[in-house]
Design goal:
The protein is α+β, with helices and mostly antiparallel strands. The chain has nine helices and seven strands; from the N terminus they run αααααααβαββββββα. The protein folds into three domains: 55 residues; 57 residues; 137 residues, Phosphorylase Kinase, domain 1 (2-Layer Sandwich), CATH 3.30.200. It has a seven-stranded antiparallel beta sheet with strand order 1-2-3-4-7-6-5, sandwiched between helices.
C-alpha cells in the first residue's frame, strides 16, 4: 500500500475499526515507515492525554437515587389515578409518561455502569481481547523474518536500540546464566499502541516479553492464564505492564518472570 493510504487508515487502526488483514498490513508498514510510526505515536499520545485529563463530566453521586425516587412517586401517582373512574377516551391513550422515565433511567444507569467499567479494560491484559492480541503477536513473531528488529545477546545493544522508537525505556536483562538467554528485540503493537517486545530462549522454546507503560505506579504479583495453547504470565512493575508469552510450561514461564523481577 502507498504511504498516503496507510496514513489515512491510521485513525481507523487506532480506533480498532479495520479488519484483521488490513490491521496486519498497517503493522507491517509501521515497522518500515518512521513517518507513519511517528504519526501513530502522536495520535496515541493525544488519546492518552484526553483519557488522563479532567475532561469527563461525572454524574452526581445521588442522581440515580433521585431518578429511582422520582419513578417510584410517578408509579404511585399513576396507581392511585388508576383507581379513579376514567373517561373512555383515556382508555385508548398512549403509554404513560412514567414508562418513558423508566426507559430513560435504565439507559442512564447502563451508560454510567459502562463508563465506570471502561477504565478496567485499559489495564495490562485481563481483557480477553488484549490477551488474544498478545498471543497473536507471539505467533506472528514465529514466522520467518518477524522475530527480531535487533538481534543480539547483549542487553547493552538491545536496550539502546529502542531509544527514539518508543515513548518509554524498557528494562532489558540478560538471563543467560539462568538458562534464559536474551536473543533480541523488536517493536510490536498491542491495544493500538507501540510496545517493546524482548525475545528470550529456553532450549528450543522462544519467549516474547511485551512491555508497555501503566497508567500509574503499581506492583502486582504474577498472574497466569492460557490461550490457544500458549501460556501467559502477567505482572506489573513500577510504571510498566509486562507479559511473557511462550509454549513453555506455566511453571517454567513463572520461573522466568521471577528471574526478570530479581
Amino acid at each position: 500500500m502507498v504511504c498516503d493510504d496507510n496514513s489515512r487508515l491510521l485513525h481507523g487502526y487506532v480506533d480498532g475499526e479495520l479488519d484483521l488483514v488490513r490491521s496486519l498490513e498497517i503493522e507491517e508498514h509501521l515497522k518500515a515507515c518512521p513517518d507513519c510510526a511517528q504519526q501513530l505515536w502522536s495520535q496515541q499520545t493525544l488519546r492518552k492525554a484526553f483519557r488522563s485529563s479532567n475532561l469527563y463530566q461525572r454524574a452526581p453521586s445521588g442522581l440515580a437515587v433521585r431518578i429511582r425516587a422520582s419513578i417510584s412517586q410517578e408509579v404511585a401517582r399513576e396507581a392511585g389515578a388508576a383507581l379513579q373512574p376514567k373517561p373512555i377516551s383515556m382508555l385508548t391513550a398512549k403509554p404513560k409518561v412514567w414508562n418513558w422515565l423508566a426507559v430513560a433511567a435504565a439507559i442512564l444507569v447502563v451508560a454510567l455502569l459502562t463508563w465506570r467499567a471502561l477504565p478496567s479494560l485499559k489495564g495490562r491484559g485481563n481483557s480477553d481481547l488484549v490477551a488474544q492480541e498478545l498471543v497473536a503477536s507471539h505467533i506472528r513473531s514465529l514466522q520467518p523474518g518477524h522475530l527480531f528488529d535487533v538481534q543480539s545477546t547483549d542487553q547493552h545493544t538491545v536496550k539502546p536500540w529502542f531509544d527514539g522508537r518508543l515513548d518509554f525505556s524498557p528494562s532489558v536483562r540478560d538471563l543467560t546464566e539462568e538458562g534464559f538467554p536474551l536473543v533480541g528485540g523488536r517493536l510490536d503493537y498491542i491495544d493500538h499502541r507501540a510496545v517493546a517486545a524482548l525475545v528470550y530462549q529456553r532450549r528450543q522454546h522462544l519467549i516474547n516479553v511485551f512491555i508497555w507503560p501503566a497508567d500509574k505506579q503499581t506492583d502486582n504479583n504474577l498472574q497466569s492464564e492460557s490461550s490457544q495453547g500458549y501460556n501467559m504470565v502477567f505482572w506489573e512493575r513500577n510504571t510498566m505492564y509486562l507479559c511473557a508469552v511462550s509454549d513453555l510450561s506455566t511453571g517454567e514461564l513463572q520461573q522466568f518472570a521471577q528471574l526478570m523481577e530479581r
